[in-house]
Write a structure and sequence with these properties.
The chain is built from nine helices and twelve strands. It is an alpha/beta fold. The chain has a single domain, classed as Purple Acid Phosphatase, chain A, domain 2.
Length: 331
């Protein structure tokens, strides 16, 4: 706990004018994606991700966040596949933060994923990627982890928080595939139930709601100029497309809207999941919340987010990486 005290004090301290200097960070996700029936394509995809890591190093962001899905949905959930991204992450010359996606564990029960036990795969990810209270990358930065400060949720080593130039950042483990929640009547399509899935979802969902509340409470207490929330899941897929499942997202989305509106200052939601660039304000009751969805799958690009904490609209966006495979918005 003593090693976390400086970050806690930073979160709770008043914002100093010198802290609110502009900076940039990068976000990407849903890469690398390979397809077992196209091995040459996989080699090219991995090469594109390696090139992207070098492009990110040249851009020199304050840090980079991978918002989940480090393997494709049709890949086997083997140890080797799950550790592939670790090699890419170690190429970063700056801090790199990772939050898991559904392809790494919740969907691993499927036949073509190898019929793994999802919770065993989650335990593997936690043991390999979240060993201590620091980021990945060659220059790791300290992180405040929920598991270290919230006795009610000791398993959530992947939920993290940090501060950059007074802006509060948080990752929360909210994944695609209905957030790992078994389907309920009305979900379309019906989400199959792996053994223990509902209990796991309920525990992680409670942890996510608590971490979200604590993030905004600390940001309010510190008079932070802005908050950035990062998850893997496309929380607004059903609203955009008129179909799909939503029972694993509705409570979290409502909580996010409520906390963002009460905070009153700029909030940025960053996620992946649907594999194309999207930038909008999806919550009418929280017009201060901006959402971006990073590209993914064949579109191997990162989004560079320039942040001016003192500006009324602090966010601006550019892209890093090759733009020859841009995906159009769709459902």
């Amino acid at each position: 706990m003593r090693r976390l005290l400086p970050l806690l004090l930073l979160l709770l301290a008043p914002v100093a004018p010198a802290a609110a200097q502009p900076f940039s960070f990068a976000a990407f996700g849903d890469v690398p994606y390979c397809r077992p029936w196209a091995p040459r394509e996989c080699v090219e995809q991995e090469a594109r991700v390696a090139d992207l890591m070098q492009d990110l190093n040249r851009a020199n962001p304050a840090f980079t966040v991978h918002v989940g899905d480090t393997i494709g949905g049709s890949e086997l959930c083997t140890d080797e596949k799950l550790l592939r991204a670790f090699a890419f992450f170690t190429l970063a010359n700056h801090p790199l933060v990772y939050t898991p996606g559904d392809n790494e564990w919740t969907d691993c029960w499927r036949d073509f994923a190898g019929r793994y036990a999802p919770q065993e795969r989650l335990a593997f990810l936690r043991a390999r990627y979240f060993r201590d209270a620091s980021s990945l990358g060659r220059r790791p930065m300290p992180l405040l982890r929920q598991a270290d400060v919230d006795p009610a949720h000791p398993a959530l080593v992947e939920n993290a928080r940090w501060v950059r130039n007074a802006v509060v950042f948080a990752t929360l483990h909210v994944t695609g595939s209905n957030n790992g929640r078994p389907g309920i009547p009305g979900d379309t399509p019906v989400v199959p139930q792996a053994p223990g899935a509902l209990a796991e979802y309920e525990a992680r969902h409670a942890a996510n709601l608590a971490w979200l509340e604590a993030t905004f409470a600390d940001a309010t207490r510190a008079a932070a100029p802005a908050v950035v929330v990062m998850v893997q899941a496309d929380l607004f897929y059903v609203a955009r497309c008129g179909r799909g499942y939503d029972s694993g997202y509705a409570d979290f989305r409502s909580a996010l809207a409520r906390h963002a509106a009460a905070f009153g200052r700029p909030v940025l939601l960053v996620h992946g999941d649907s594999h194309f660039w999207l930038h909008d304000r999806p919550i009418a009751t929280a017009p201060n919340l901006t959402r971006i969805m990073v590209p993914g799958d064949q579109d191997v690009r990162a989004v560079m987010v320039a942040v001016d904490p003192s500006a009324a609209e602090p966010w601006s966006f550019t892209f890093i990486g090759r733009d020859d495979r841009m995906a159009r918005p769709g459902c």
